[in-house]
Write a structure and sequence with these properties.
By secondary structure, this protein is mostly helical. The protein has a domain of about 70 residues. It is about 60% helix and about 0% strand. It is elongated. The N and C termini lie far apart (about 140 Å). The model has no long low-confidence stretch (mean pLDDT about 80).
């Protein structure tokens, strides 16, 4: 063999060894082999990956995409704040209406009462307990007396 032939042979042998290494690396990658019953008798446990095999870096977003994402998040936050404020306002209005209705109901009850003024205080002393419980004090300037 001449020198150039030997060099080409060496180059060819280097290529074949690198191909063998590459193919051996490929064979080490996990192939989907059906799993049997694990020794621990816990079939729900999945096989763990080595930390070195997990891809850690993610593709970075471009500046335009970052800006668009930020704008979208800002828009979503504004909308959610708006919805929350509307709900709060509706709750306040419902509460206010409930209070006003209660006041109106109480005023109507007071207006529709039949009132009898007790002018003689000795009558109160002669009353029984049940009758005493029925007595309520009122401001007669606002109440219509019958």
């Amino acid at each position: 063999m001449s020198k150039p032939e030997a060099e080409t042979m060496d180059a060819a042998s280097v290529e074949t060894t690198s191909q063998k290494k590459a193919s051996s690396k490929k064979s080490k990658l996990p192939v989907n082999v059906p799993r049997g019953q694990p020794k621990s008798k816990r079939p729900w446990k999945t096989p763990k990956q080595k930390f070195s095999t997990i891809k850690k870096t993610v593709n970075r977003l471009s500046f335009e995409k970052k800006v668009a994402l930020r704008d979208e998040l800002r828009y979503i936050k504004e909308k959610s704040k708006e919805i929350k404020s509307q709900r709060k306002e509706a709750a306040v209005q419902r509460h206010q209406r409930r209070v006003e209705n209660a006041e109106r109901r109480l005023a109507n009850e007071r207006r529709s009462e039949i009132v009898q003024v007790i002018k003689n205080p000795s009558k109160i002393k002669r009353m029984k307990k049940k009758q005493m419980r029925m007595i309520e004090k009122r401001d007669i300037s606002q109440v219509k007396v019958v």
